[in-house]
């Protein structure tokens, strides 16, 4: 006579004997095709044992004396972990354990510039999540330089991409970069970062090429007026902007725009007498209706 107990997957049970039995058996029934490990341990007062399986392929399979056995089962097939006593024993018992030799499925949720991703490995047999690895979001995407001064050469700022932990991402592995055409003349240019691999999404950054500066060559005061002269800057320049103020910080300053790059002087009149004025001049270039200042 055998005393039978059911053992659940990925659990252990302590098996005992009834008053009339000389055998106690833990029985496991597979609900899905898979590979399983069965173990007998913590034997107390046991004379003999067997770890076995009955399947449609092998009516009854075991290896004598092995406490741990690995079985490849189809749904509905069973494992038996049995122990025997041949004479009187004081509270005989043993522990039976059946675990799943996981068949893993990996699901990747890609990280973006605003959200973490993750890599989750789950067993398709028992449904257990074996591991979860966080992919930190690509939180920092920067250009090495965002502002250049026109010099007739093509500009190509490099990209620095880091995740939220400070780790630097690898170009062509984690992302690719594409640049706007041109990037040689005054204007605004886009850099597109497209994430790949464990990352997804895009990020567009901009950099600017400004016109060359000019400098004041002379500033002459008159009666309630002044005349300012500056150095000509014709290349990639539409004109000039003059600002003047009684404040050295140019608060509440007034502005005069010169629409020709060939003009190099301007007289400003109708000023307040006995006042000190601060003056500055910068270049500008109009590109598609937008002014870009030096």
Topology:
Layout: E1 2-6, E2 11-16, E3 23-29, E4 34-44, E5 48-54, E6 61-62, E7 68-73, E8 78-84, E9 93-101, E10 104-109, E11 117-123, E12 129-135, E13 140-143, E14 147-149, E15 159-162, E16 175-179, E17 187-195, E18 202-210, E19 216-222, E20 225-230, E21 239-245, E22 254-258, E23 265-268, E24 278-287, E25 290-293
Parallel strand pairs: 1-3, 14-18
Antiparallel strand pairs: 2-9, 3-8, 4-7, 4-9, 5-6, 5-8, 10-11, 11-12, 13-15, 16-17, 17-18, 19-20, 20-23, 21-22, 21-24, 24-25
Radius of gyration of CA atoms, rounded to a whole number: 41 Å
Number of H- or I-type helical stretches = 0
Shape: rod-shaped
Structural class: mainly beta
- Report on the biggest sheet: 5 strands, mixed
H and E order: EEEEEEEEEEEEEEEEEEEEEEEEE
Report low-confidence residues grouped into runs of 5 or more: none
Query: What's the count of strands?
Result: 25
How much is the average pLDDT?
94
Strand order of the largest sheet: 1-3-8-5-6
- Beta-strand content bin: over 45%
- Fraction of residues in H or I helices: under 10%
| End-to-end CA span | 98 Å
List keywords for this structure.
four-stranded antiparallel β-sheet, single chain, five-stranded mixed β-sheet, 294 residues, mainly beta
Description:
The strands form 7 sheets. Strands 1-3-8-5-6 form a 5-stranded mixed sheet, with no helix packed on it. Strands 2-9-4-7 form a 4-stranded antiparallel sheet, with no helix packed on it. The mean pLDDT is 94. The protein starts with a strand and ends with a strand. The protein has 294 residues and is an all-beta fold. It has strands at 2-6, 11-16, 23-29, 34-44, 48-54, 61-62, 68-73, 78-84, 93-101, 104-109, 117-123, 129-135, 140-143, 147-149, 159-162, 175-179, 187-195, 202-210, 216-222, 225-230, 239-245, 254-258, 265-268, 278-287, 290-293.
């Amino acid at each position: 006579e055998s005393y039978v107990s059911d053992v659940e997957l990925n659990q252990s049970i302590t098996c005992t004997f009834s008053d009339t039995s000389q055998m106690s058996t833990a029985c496991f029934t597979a609900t899905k095709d898979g590979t399983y490990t069965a173990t007998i341990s913590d034997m107390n007062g046991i004379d003999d044992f067997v770890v076995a399986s009955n399947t449609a392929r092998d009516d009854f399979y075991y290896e004598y004396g092995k406490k741990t056995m690995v079985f490849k089962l189809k749904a509905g097939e069973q494992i038996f972990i049995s122990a025997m006593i041949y004479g009187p024993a004081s509270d005989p018992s043993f522990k039976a354990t059946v675990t799943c030799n996981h068949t893993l499925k990996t699901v990747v949720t890609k990280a973006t510039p605003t959200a973490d991703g993750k890599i989750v490995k789950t067993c398709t047999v028992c449904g257990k999540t074996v591991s979860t690895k966080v992919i930190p979001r690509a939180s920092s995407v920067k250009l090495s330089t965002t502002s250049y001064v026109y010099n007739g050469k093509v500009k190509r700022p490099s990209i620095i991409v880091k995740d939220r932990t400070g780790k630097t991402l690898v170009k062509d592995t984690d992302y690719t970069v594409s640049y706007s055409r041109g990037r040689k003349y005054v204007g605004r240019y886009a850099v597109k970062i497209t994430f790949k691999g464990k990352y997804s999404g895009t990020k567009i950054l901009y950099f600017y090429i400004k016109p060359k500066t000019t400098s004041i060559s002379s500033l002459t005061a008159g009666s309630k007026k002044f005349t300012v002269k500056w150095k000509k800057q014709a290349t990639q320049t539409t004109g000039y902007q003059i600002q003047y103020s009684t404040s050295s910080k140019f608060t509440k300053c007034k502005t005069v725009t010169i629409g020709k790059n060939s003009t190099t002087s301007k007289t400003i009149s109708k000023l307040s007498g006995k006042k000190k004025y601060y003056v500055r001049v910068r270049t500008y270039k109009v590109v598609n209706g937008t002014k870009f200042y030096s």
